């Protein structure tokens, strides 16, 4: 198991044990757990992600810390958009929708104002436009 996978497993366990709260360096991060289906493997995977609220939707950003590549969870959501969301103590089915056009621009402006470090990630990512994914309750 990679260091990142081990870290994620610990975060997931703590999140579920504490009604959606975690400590340490993620104590002040609004987290959501997204259970998705692997695009190649078909396996169920759960990924902890930071999110912002937009009306009734949760919004996540596929920044991948400014890497030139999208994170693997993003590819999985594109291939299999039916997901399960855990936020706080609530769990529900959702649809992952990649924001485009004016909607993406609106969300990017909102999220970047709340999380300005994303501007640095976009600069590092170069030509890769960082995707924004809306998690809409099914």
From TrEMBL:
So what does this thing catalyse? oxidized coenzyme F420-(gamma-L-Glu)(n) + a quinol + H(+) = reduced coenzyme F420-(gamma-L-Glu)(n) + a quinone
GO CC annotation: what is one? plasma membrane
Which Gene Ontology terms cover its molecular function?
Answer: coenzyme F420 binding; oxidoreductase activity
Matches recorded under Gene3D superfamilies? Electron Transport, Fmn-binding Protein, Chain A
Reading the lineage from the top rank, the first entry is Bacteria
| InterPro entries in UniProt | F420H2_quin_Rdtase, Split_barrel_FMN-bd
Similarity annotation? Belongs to the F420H(2)-dependent quinone reductase family.
Descriptive protein name:
Deazaflavin-dependent oxidoreductase (Nitroreductase family)
What is the native source organism of this protein? Kutzneria kofuensis
């Amino acid at each position: 198991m990679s260091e990142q996978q081990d870290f994620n497993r610990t975060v997931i366990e703590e999140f579920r044990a504490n009604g959606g709260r975690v400590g340490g360096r993620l104590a002040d991060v609004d987290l959501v757990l997204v259970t998705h289906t692997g695009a190649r493997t078909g396996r169920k995977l759960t990924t902890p992600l930071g999110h912002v609220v937009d009306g009734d939707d949760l919004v996540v950003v596929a920044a991948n810390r400014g890497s030139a590549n999208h994170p693997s969870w993003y590819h999985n959501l594109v291939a299999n958009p039916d997901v399960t969301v855990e936020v706080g103590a609530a769990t529900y089915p959702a649809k992952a929708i990649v924001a485009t056009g004016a909607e993406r621009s609106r969300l990017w402006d909102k999220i970047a104002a709340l999380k300005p470090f994303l501007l640095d990630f976009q600069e590092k990512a170069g030509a890769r436009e960082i995707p924004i994914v809306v998690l809409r309750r099914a």
